[in-house]
Amino acid sequence: MRVHVSVCNSVLGCLVKNGKFDSSFKLYDEMIREGLSPDPFTYSTLLSGCMKLKQGYTKAMGLINEMKSRGLQMDSVIYGTLLAICASHNYCEEAEVYFQKMKDEGHSPNLFHYSSLLNAYSENADYGKAEMLMKDLRNSGLTPNKVMLTTLLKVYSKGGIFEKAKELLTELEASGFAQDEMPYCILIDGLVKGGKIQGAKMLFNEMKDKGVKSDGYAFSIMISALHRGGHHQESKQLAKEFEDQNASYDLVMLNASLRTYCSTNDMESVMRMLKKMDELNISPDNITFNTLIRYFCNAKVYHLAYKTIEDMHAKGHQLNEELCCYVMVQLGKAGFPSEAFSVYNMLRYSKRTVRKSLHEKALGILVSAELLKDAYIVVKDNAEMISPSSLERFARSFMVSGNINLINDVMKALNRSGWRISQDIFGRAIQRYIRKPDKKHLLLCLLDWMTGQGYSVDSSSRNLLLRNAQLFGPKQLVAEILSKQQTASRSRTIGQRHNN
Question: Tell me, what's the pLDDT at 350?
Answer without folding.
Answer: 80
